[in-house]
Known about the structure:
This protein is of the alpha+beta class. The protein has helices spanning 24-46, 54-60, 93-98, 118-127, 160-170; strands at residues 4-6, 12-14, 70-72, 75-77, 85-92, 131-137, 148-157, 174-177, 182-186. It has 2 domains: 4-46, no CATH class; 54-186, no CATH class. A 5-stranded antiparallel β-sheet has the order 5-6-7-9-8. A two-stranded antiparallel sheet has the order 1-2.
Amino acid sequence: MVKGFKDAKGDFHPITQSKGVRSRRDTSQKIMGVKLERKKRNESLSKPRYKRSAKEQKLELLEPFFNNNNYVNGHRAKFTTGDRYGQFDHLPVDVAESLMTGNPNIDPNDTQNDSPKAKELVELAKKHNGTLGGYYINANDEGRDDHRITIESIFLKIGKKDAEALAKKIFPDEFDKQSNGIWRYWWD
């Protein structure tokens, strides 16, 4: 028995299957396949094409602590991780510890001139519930190859007597009382 249909005049027209399409079900699957491909393509377009590098992800940890003392053409500018240089203050110990691995990183053995090692400053901040300050250098800047994060200050909330005793032990270039009983130790 040949499948087909009758038109309005009553003439019979046999249905012939074209190559590649065997039935109505196969045709709908092909159409659905095209729709799925389009949907996948559209979803991939809506996803960010640019994947942040490990370096960028790490530097984003620093951004909330930049003190915005950066100047561009004589005007104060908000620091971004693409800048050449940025200062940060009151960096929590847990963030500093996470920045001590990978690249760029805070080198645990780095010192700012005559300061204690970075790992020692982090331990002091941890012991006294303090925070850290420092700067970031971007190696993407022309003529630089020293991409780094350096700790140059520590902020501790301790009593005056303990603060002065610690200052005699670690020899900061500057030592002063900030607001709320926080003492700052800084190395040039």
